[in-house]
Amino acid sequence: MCKTVNKYDLFQNILATAHHSRIFFQKTAPGPLIWLLFNRNLIVRTMATDEQIMSLKKQYLKSKPVCKVTFRLKASEAGKAARARLVGDFNQWDKAVSPMRKLKNGDFTQTVTLEKDHEYAFRYWVDDKCWENDWEADGYQRSPLSNEDNSVVRV
Questions:
Q1: Which of 21, 63, 125, 131 is least surrounded, with the fewest CB atoms within 10 Å of its CB?
Q2: pLDDT digits (tens, 9 = 90+) for 65-118
Q3: Alpha carbons 116 and 61: distance in angstroms, whole number
Q4: C-alpha–C-alpha distance, residues 133 and 122, integer Å
């Protein structure tokens, strides 16, 4: 779902809404912290649970100083997109790269081999018309070309 939201605007919206809403925190073992923001019983944002597949999967190789990173754009973020491309520092932000593989459940996935001890900015180019961030990335950094954030993967 192509939306232009950076983390600062998202945080401001959460703070403003939290003042008039209830916030519930739950810790699942050994899973991540899950937070639900309810506003008139509407779930605004949910972090991944143990049963959900994380958007970045890292596999470090013992024989080489590289890491195989599998990127996943979830169907809930891609909407009804027919195509998504993984674009970032590792491919010189080339929007003409081969599309990611679309899974039966609507997710898109691609594995890239990256050098260890680096961080790489990236985004998803959805249907060749809009950008989507990975909201479960290792971090975010301001884009030098726009007033938006890029997702960051650290390996």
A1: 63
A2: 999 999 999 999 999 999 999 999 999 999 999 999 999 999 999 999 999 999
A3: 10
A4: 8
* Structural tokens at position 80: 């009804």
- Helices assigned H by DSSP within 1-153: 7-18, 75-78
Extended beta strands in 22-79, E state: 22-27, 33-39, 42-46, 56-60, 66-73
Which range has highest mean pLDDT (19-23, 32-36, 71-75)? 71-75
Instruction: Enter the tokens of residue 5.
Output: 């939201």
Q: Which amino acid belongs to residue 21?
A: S
